[in-house]
Specification:
The complex is a heterodimer. Chain A is of the alpha/beta class. Chain A is built from 12 helices and 13 strands. Helix content of chain A is 34%, strand content 27%. Chain B is an all-alpha fold. Classes of the chains: A alpha/beta, B mainly alpha.
Chain lengths: 311, 257
């Protein structure tokens, strides 16, 4: 019985040059619903990558496959050159899930001791409690923790095997601003030591602020992949907003550099690659007032890129 | 980036260990409802039923009070063990089984931990009823008979640990224990545990098909010195059904976490 339950023999050799995570042509269907429609992704060791996309984009489904919680319908998932299950057995990959996964009747310390006891080698209970910033909560019952505290406990559990790769599925959902800041401080401090981090989020500022690289995903496909600055550049240009009664979209669209025009009552919103000619036209040739010019942020890039996919 | 210790080993024995077992037992013992209804209640039942007879009312190699004590020990052990098994329902509802799938702990090892903690809890339940019996002082049987009965009862709890696991995988959350409590009471009445059923009657024939009948006959065999063959078949078949049912539900469970 014991032999059957024991994991496989360890792989020999170095893995320095192996990708932390590699997905090739991965798809996943649930019945007739295609949650993931073909993702190719390679994450190098030590990268901090954000998986950014709206709800239902396929982020959690993809993370589940990287963790071996579900099998891809087609394609291949490798973690450090091995199957997800092997990587988990060796404590090379761990995850902080969005919700659940804790027993309310256990204390914080018991929870960490329980999970720690099943790994072949782990950091000490006190060590991970401290790194997750919950040392003072050790005796507290899990059911009495706040959402943010529970999330830091999940983070402590994920640190136990000292994994090479850490996956976080929307880790700050339901946290207040302060909780979110403290959580990311702990993650950043940890990633600085060379851990590969892949986190899913639908908060743009989170992806921009904490990731080296953003993989934009929508409707089960990768729509963009690059740094925050690169993603922003993909949807470059400015947005002009002005008060203008009886705006004529046809006339305005003839201005050089205009991408799109939207009229909402007395307000006209113009997207343009070059804002100067548009501003000059509006102020000299029309009765426009209250002109505002803003650069498109990551949010607009996000909408532009994910919107494109629908059309 | 430092070189990874890729040769990190998987844990032995699928991750099973004493820390795990210790925490499991502490959890069950900390649950006030479990302690009252599964550990104290059978002792109280024994005092209520077992005090009606005098020490001279003999039954087999012991007396009637001893016979009732063994029956209540079985009932207590069955309740405790099935509660321990059914705790998988609550753990699944809380997403704990998903958390465990992110560790090297094998499902078989997890079930083994549950079964072992159910067995230990069953033994404690039997111990409590026997202790009440000793303190009350009316139960009489030879020491060897006493010990054999207790050991057979502990062994019998495996049937109910399996039943608990089965129901735990079948019924979600808190409902599992709400189903098991009344079911075990019915099994105890129908299975010749709470009230004596005369051998050869129609009731006896019906009883011989219910899940508690077989193990009840086995656990008091040292007192009665009488063990019908169909009682052994009953115990084996029900154990097989519950283990099979739990394994079946468990295999269905892994797909959707």
């Amino acid at each position: 019985m014991i032999d059957v339950m024991t994991g496989r023999e360890p792989v020999q050799g170095s893995v320095q040059d192996v990708a932390a995570v590699r997905l090739r042509g991965v798809t996943k269907s649930f019945g007739t619903v295609q949650a993931v429609r073909g993702i190719d992704l390679e994450i190098a060791q030590g990268e901090v990558v954000a998986f950014l996309g709206p709800n239902g984009a396929g982020k959690t489904t993809t993370i589940d496959m990287v963790l071996g919680l579900s099998e891809p319908t087609a394609g291949d998932v490798q973690v450090l050159g091995m199957s997800p299950r092997e990587a988990i057995d060796r404590g090379l990959v761990s995850a902080v899930m969005q919700s659940g996964g804790l027993l309310k009747d256990l204390s914080v310390r018991e929870t960490v001791a329980y999970i720690g006891s099943v790994f072949a080698s782990t950091a000490s209970v006190d060590d991970v409690l401290e790194r997750a910033g919950i040392t003072e909560l050790a005796q507290r019952t899990v059911g009495k923790l706040s959402g943010g505290e529970q999330q830091r406990l999940r983070f402590a559990l994920a640190l136990l095997p000292d994994p090479a790769i850490l996956l976080l599925d929307e880790p700050t959902t339901g946290m207040d601003v302060e909780g979110r800041r403290r959580f990311w401080e702990a993650i950043r401090a940890d990633a600085a030591a060379g851990r590969t981090v892949l986190f899913a989020t639908h908060y743009l500022e989170e992806a921009d602020q904490y990731a080296d690289r953003i993989v934009l995903i929508d409707s089960g496909r990768t729509v963009a992949d690059g740094s925050g600055a690169e993603i922003r550049a993909l949807a470059s240009g400015r947005m002009l907003r002005a008060t203008l009664a009886d705006a004529d979209p046809a006339e305005l669209s003839r201005i050089r550099g205009v991408d799109s025009i939207e009229v909402r009552g007395d307000t006209v919103i113009i997207h343009a690659a070059d804002s100067d000619p548009v501003a000059r036209y509006l102020l000299t040739r029309t009765s426009a007032t209250n002109l505002e010019i803003t650069a498109r942020g990551l949010e607009d890039a996000f909408l532009a890129l994910t919107g494109k996919d629908d059309q | 980036m430092t070189t990874l210790d890729i040769a990190a080993r998987s844990p032995r024995a699928g991750g099973i260990n004493l820390t795990l077992l210790g925490i499991e037992l502490r959890r069950v013992l900390r649950n006030r409802r479990t302690v009252i209804f599964t550990l104290l209640f059978p002792g109280a039942m024994f005092l209520a039923f077992g005090s009606q007879y005098s020490a001279s009312d003999s039954a087999g190699s012991g007396n009637v009070t001893a016979y009732i004590m063994v029956a209540m020990g079985l009932y207590g052990a069955a309740m405790t063990a099935s509660a321990a098994g059914a705790s998988v329902a609550l753990e699944r509802a809380q997403g704990w089984s998903r958390q465990l799938r992110l560790t090297p702990l094998r499902p078989a090892a997890y079930i083994l931990v549950k079964a072992l903690s159910a067995l230990v809890m069953g033994a404690i339940a039997v111990g409590v009823v026997n202790l009440v019996g000793v303190v009350q002082g009316r139960a009489h049987m030879p020491l060897g008979t006493w010990v054999s009965c207790a050991l057979l009862t502990v062994l019998s709890t495996l049937v109910f640990a399996a039943l608990g696991l089965f129901v735990g995988y079948l019924v979600p959350g808190e409902t599992a224990m709400q189903v098991l409590g009344p079911a075990l009471a019915v099994f105890a009445f129908a299975g010749n545990v709470f009230i004596p059923i005369s051998q050869g009657s129609v009731m006896w024939t019906i009883a011989s098909f219910t899940p508690m009948f077989g193990v009840a006959e086995i656990t008091r065999y040292p007192i009665t010195n009488d063990l019908p063959w169909y009682a052994v078949v009953n115990a084996v078949v029900w154990l097989g059904l519950f283990v099979g049912g739990a394994a079946w539900r468990m295999s269905r469970d892994t797909g959707r976490v």
